[in-house]
Amino acid sequence: MAKYDAPTDFINFLNASPTAFHAVDESKRLLINAGYVQVSEREDWKLEVGKRYFFTRNYSTIVAFAIGKKYVAGNGFYVVGAHTDSPCIKLKPVSKVTKSGYLEVGVQPYGGGLWHTWFDRDLTVAGRVILREQKDGCVAYSHQLVRVVEPIMRVPTLAIHLDRNVNSDGFKVNTQNHLLPVLATSSELNKVVAENGPAGSGDQTEGKKSNKGATTNNSKHHSVLLEIVANQLGCKPDDICDMELQACDTQPSVIGGAAKEFIFSGRLDNLCMSFCSLKALIDATSLESDLEDESGVRMVALFDHEEIGSNSAQGAGSPVMLDALSRITSTFNSDSKLLQKAIQKSFLVSADMAHALHPNYTDKHEENHQPKMHGGLVIKHNANQRYATNSITALLFREIASKHNLPVQDFVVRNDMPCGSTIGPILASGVGIRTVDVGAPQLSMHSIREMCAVDDIKHSYEHFKAFFQEISHLDSKITVDM
């Protein structure tokens, strides 16, 4: 039997997932290919023990679960949670900007990105488009994902001759004035229209309005951008009602380094944990025998909007997790008290990337807590509950690593530095579920181009898979509130 190649599959996942919408779409494809059945939150659920299911919310959050054959209502849920979003620059509702003969695209920063890394990159757009369609003589609306493959815009830096002190004073980005990508020059678009006639794409077509939707969109976005998106979808610009697009780097994710030991990519935070947890769930539930002795529910929940606080209808701060636990429990028994019982038996691994020790900035790490690449998943601790780990949850996760000979590390931020956070404390406090915060070590977090170790993809996948296989048995050996 061929050994599973997690890093290569991860590269394919990254290259298929320029946005949270695409990450969910790719996750859905993987789940369906593995025999998972989609259910809708708008419909009643008919679930069976030993079966596997998933649902999406807003098509940017996805929850997948496999019900053990020995499951009864009130038993626990064993969950790995991650997030689908990453810092980026998103197009404004009105993105049409024209300055000094340039067509620019109005954008707004999403999350806490290293915005200087977005300059001088070959950029494109991707996201979701809402289309107006005619069905049975009536108007209907659908969402379609779009990704323009070619580089169509760029955020140029100012020449050093015009900013002599940039290297000594630092590159200071004003995100309102400096971060706008250049899409085209109006003079060149005028030539295209002159050569190809009025049907060509260019700002001359801004005044051509065939319906109300086109009028609205042409006043909000450059017509050349609308035509590029429409051509990608095989529709007319007039069919586009609205768009949720973001700028994306066109450079593909790759395995690199002198020893081919690194992954160079954007969005490692947090598509790395999303992929590893999803693939682990699939492979821990692929055989009939995998769920034979399972008394709980194995679950992966990939949320949107973690980078901006998780406060949305599809973020970890929403009821999506609690709704899933409640609906699964009540499908098998309507007694409402069983949900509280189930939550107390449940366990969450909050999986979000961790800060690897940077060789050029070693003073940024606490002396006894310096996660290193190739060192396996990092257990994150914080006395002020910026991470939800405690001694019990850390022990359980560490024992799984020990049994399967997997490396594991610990991280605490320096006392004189602020600490980031994850979905862990949000779900721990909102749902009441025991939680451990972990993540694979990486460098360049929140850059347009990040890096992590190939080894740690394998370690993460194997650790999460072992978690699903071991946790229900191991948890039965722990006695706390008795």
Keywords:
482 residues; 12 helices; nine-stranded mixed beta sheet; 20 strands; five-stranded mixed beta sheet; globular; alpha/beta; single chain
Briefly, what is this?
The chain is α/β, with parallel strands linked by helices and 482 residues long. The protein has helices spanning 6-15, 20-33, 166-169, 186-196, 212-220, 223-233, 268-283, 320-332, 337-345, 391-403, 423-431, 454-475; strands at residues 37-38, 52-57, 61-67, 77-83, 88-99, 102-110, 123-135, 138-147, 182-185, 240-249, 254-256, 262-265, 297-303, 347-351, 354-355, 377-380, 408-411, 434-439, 441-443, 450-453.
Detailed description of the structure:
The structure is a single chain. The chain is of the alpha/beta class and 482 residues long. Helix content is 29%, strand content 25%. The protein is built from 12 helices and 20 strands. It has helices at residues 6-15, 20-33, 166-169, 186-196, 212-220, 223-233, 268-283, 320-332, 337-345, 391-403, 423-431, 454-475; strands at residues 37-38, 52-57, 61-67, 77-83, 88-99, 102-110, 123-135, 138-147, 182-185, 240-249, 254-256, 262-265, 297-303, 347-351, 354-355, 377-380, 408-411, 434-439, 441-443, 450-453. It has a 9-stranded mixed sheet, with helices on both faces. Helix 1 packs across helix 7, helix 2 (20-33) packs parallel to helix 7 (268-283) and helix 7 (268-283) packs across helix 12. The chain is globular and about 75 Å long. 45% of the residues are buried.
